[in-house]
Amino acid sequence: MGVRDLVPEAGDRERPAPRGPDSAALGWTAGAAGVFALVQLLLVAPGTGLGWDEIVYISQVQSGTPTAFFSAPRARGISYLVAPVALLTASTAVLRAYLALLSATGLFLALWVWRRLLPPAVLGAAGLLFAGLWTTLYYGPRAMPNLWCALGALAATGWLLRALRPGGGRAALLATGAAVAFVTVMRPVDGVWLSLPLVAAALVFAGGRRLRVAAAPVAGVALGALPWVAEAYGSYGGLAARLARASEIQGGLGWHVAVDDQVRSLVGRTLCRPCEGPWTHPWTAAWWFALPLLAAGGVVLARRAGRGRSAAVAAGVGLCLALPYLFSVDYAAPRFLLPAYAVLSVPVAECVAGCFAAVRARALAPGRRRAAYGVLAGALFVHTAVQGAVLHRVDERSRNQHRVLTATGHALHRLGVRPPCVVSGEQAIPIAYYAGCASRQVGGHDASISAERLAVLGRSRPVAVISAGRARPPSFARSWPASPLPGGYVAWLAPRSR
Length: 498
Description:
Number of helices: 19
Strand order of the largest sheet: 2-1-3-5-4
Mean pLDDT: 92
Strand content: under 5%
Distance between the termini: 73 Å
Largest sheet: 5 strands, mixed
Radius of gyration: 25 Å
Oligomer: single chain
Low-confidence stretches: none
Order of helices and strands: HHHHHHHHHHHHHHHHHEHEHEEE
């Protein structure tokens, strides 16, 4: 297999996917989205609480909840997305159900874009392969932006490919720009990295329309970045200052090889920072090492079927979306690569479907054919079982954390720390949320108040400084009375907080 097998020629015109009835594409797409929704609603969402980042995003729009500090790297897209529910209720269960159904709908719509580009079986396989990852399922009902960037990237790539085809009109270009803008509103860095390969594909494949097609993703980035840039000048001292502060909070963006960190995190570590210790359960990363080979094989098989351009562009977009998180950030979180996985699901699905088709087409004895099908089905079953095992472990950890934080909030109430109150120190944002308090930090990335000001607040309202285990509190709180909390935390209470 040579490079020529992976990259279609610029002048090639891709054969359209076999045009069966839309009912076939509808069945496969709706099936994948339906499975995604059911697993979330039945197995993932029940009993889980809100995490640190979720609380930051939700508190920006939730009625009656003190607003958490919003640091420079964050964007407000996910806050906009949860606002219709967060403005009406503080119920985590309702929020989880809303996001589970909305993410399943988003998966359906993103896949539906591809119905003119892929056969129904490949379309459904792409949806099931992406939805079957533990990371996808875990973040489906959570108020985090990465899955939404993934769905937007998948839709944007499909719309651009449709715009490249003969007869691709203004609607496809507008949809491309809108999808890129959506991703950029969620996470500006993902929007920028998504636009680069889309522009490149337009310049290579769009012929005399190249500048017009390339303008769509560029316009999408510019439009989607407007809120973030405007906030930079309104709250952070300008765009350069916000970018510098964002880089500082993320550990200094630059050349950092985080490939091994991403591999280690696949065991179920939602944040690997720092990513130290032994690499346990390496089998959880087997699919990750196979992913490049499967994607490359999918491009080759798709090219033979006349769909090489779609698969090659999808592979290029997926690679580009992965680059910043593999080589510019010095820590890892599996959710960072969700956009890459979503788009790479297309060539991987081509590979999987092509393997089954090859077995069906070969003149094999019935026994050998059954054995070949069994090997392919067995590999998919093992992959699904591994993803399910990791998902169960991560979800149980989330439920345990929810129980601890709920008990911590109740313990603070018994100590007299009730609204209006302020919590600072270790895990201040989630503990404050569960206690109904505001969170304020005197140092670090979320510094929003001075030690002197926090001490003054303690004279008029309940203030608690949280430390973990035997860790000592800040110097200004060391004379305050201490009380143990669930989870091994200790609350140092301002003298008049009781």
